[in-house]
Amino acid sequence: MSGKAAIVGGGVIGGGWAARFLLNGWDVAVFDPDPQAERKLGEVLENARRSLPGLGDVALPSEGQLRFCASLAEAVDGADWVQESVPERLELKHRVLAELAGHVRADTVIGSSTSGFKPSELQEGQALAGQIVVAHPFNPVYLLPLVEIVGSPANDPAFIEDACARLTALGMKPLHIRAEIDAHIADRLLEAVWREALWLVRDGIATTEEIDDAIRFGFGLRWAQMGLFETYRIAGGEAGMRHFISQFGPCLQWPWTKLMDVPELTDDLIERIAGQSDAQSGTHSIRELERIRDGNLVGMMRALALNDWGAGALQNAHDAARAQAAGLVDHVGALSDPSLPVLTLTRAVPLDWIDYNGHMTEARYLDAFAQATDRLMRMVGCDDSYIAEGGSFFTVETHIRHLDEVRAGAPITVHTRVLEGAGKKMHLWHEMQSDGRLLATGEHMLLHVDLATRRASPPAPQVAGALERLAAAHAALPLPEGAGRGVGAPR
Ligand SMILES: NC(=O)C1=CN([C@@H]2O[C@H](COP(=O)(O)OP(=O)(O)OC[C@H]3O[C@@H](n4cnc5c(N)ncnc54)[C@H](O)[C@@H]3O)[C@@H](O)[C@H]2O)C=CC1
Ligand SMILES: C[N+](C)(C)CC(=O)CC(=O)[O-]
């Protein structure tokens, strides 16, 4: 599902939305009167291109077209989705939303990035009230999946459902909030923590860095994968949540926190916070900090994907939904031309595959080829249920030639030939390319095994048959250059 998005306000958040849409194949038109908007958005987009395409294990669609427009009307013309991301001032948002009337279709979703306003506040007096919803994202919008979707009685539930489906297709996690409240869910929580942190600095208890350490070395890591309630359930020991509440519930009555009090943001306090923040992080530019943050986020979300958990499980589901559109098939019977090498991997190089030389590290060539082998196994019928019944393939020999380098975010494909598929043997030839350049070849010998005895055994007839047919179809192709070669420089 792609389309045309209009971004109204291309600052920190509008820029992130633009990147999310563009890298998922949408055309994007931006309206922002700031003369620096194009430069700033370009820098955000550059960071996004490094990090988002490699987040999942399946290639994203080709990038859409980006356009900067001189007027709001020009930007939103023909848009399927308009995302308002102007500064958090209600009168400004009202003005911008009112200007959309007459310029957008009746089915265009008008999302507002507002961190705090309720949808009914945004919709007040608006001709297009029924099309306006809160779509509150999290920075960086191109990597973090959460979007809080909040509507009001003015919105048709089917309209909200459709908006959520479009966000899901962008790899996002729309969280539909049933009741409208100031600051939705997440910012209500974040503001409570932010207020307490300001008190801690104001009272001289902790520096900005010490507070950040208290989060990032401890509960922040827990929150990223289990949130609050699941974490506390475990903290209650075997008796779970009930014991946790009976032990720590009474503390809520003690004045552990400042609750609703807000410290006065005096010049002195602002200087103290900003000065400590400079001392803590001032050696990095904001763009550098963004790149460090993005690398960490990609690493964490890819680790969660290995456990099929939380944000990682969402990414896996997105990959599975994208696989067919990316040209990957699950069974040899679905190949349009079985006589050609089979597309077994199409993805971008993730940030966590990059080494100190600034390119994809050697071990990841094997990782990519292993993913390609896994898909070929699935295609011949050696899938999860076959493996659960006790049959599989083990790799017994591998020869990889590293022919060219590739950088973070670059697209890579692997095409695979079956050089031999007979009896217990599966002899594969993988070729990895990026934009027409041959990056590597991988030659792999696998043997079918009985997982009960851990010894070589013939595959089940349906697997043997599919493999033999593919090997026969590939036999007409000329032998690939380098196949069967030993290790060493060519003489
Ligand atoms: N910065 C953050 O962490 C987050 C912000 N938000 C929300 O996103 C919205 C935007 O915030 P930021 O991107 O942080 O602000 P920002 O200041 O970085 O960007 C706002 C952009 O809007 C442009 N603008 C001002 N008037 C405009 C108009 N009439 N038409 C078009 N563009 C106009 C400005 O030139 C600027 O580039 C706010 O509602 C904010 O609450 C939501 C999630 C996180
Ligand atoms: C600070 N903030 C209220 C603008 C933050 C958000 O709205 C969400 C985020 O990205 O933390």
UniProtKB/TrEMBL annotation:
Family, per entry: Belongs to the 3-hydroxyacyl-CoA dehydrogenase family. L-carnitine dehydrogenase subfamily.
A GO-annotated cellular component: cytoplasm
Catalysed reactions, semicolon-separated: carnitine + NAD(+) = 3-dehydrocarnitine + NADH + H(+)
Pfam entry (one): 3HCDH
Organism whose genome encodes this protein: Lutimaribacter saemankumensis
Residue ranges annotated for the 3-hydroxyacyl-CoA dehydrogenase C-terminal domain, each copy included: 185-249
Domain (3-hydroxyacyl-CoA dehydrogenase NAD binding) ranges: 4-178
InterPro entries referenced in this protein's UniProt entry, alphabetically: 3-OHacyl-CoA_DH_NAD-bd, 3HC_DH_C, 6-PGluconate_DH-like_C_sf, 6PGD_dom2, HotDog_dom_sf, L-carnitine_dehydrogenase, NAD(P)-bd_dom_sf
Annotated GO MF terms: carnitine 3-dehydrogenase activity; NAD+ binding
Subunit-level organization: Homodimer.
Pathway membership: Amine and polyamine metabolism; carnitine metabolism
Top class in the EC scheme: oxidoreductase
Protein name: L-carnitine dehydrogenase
UniProt subcellular location: Cytoplasm
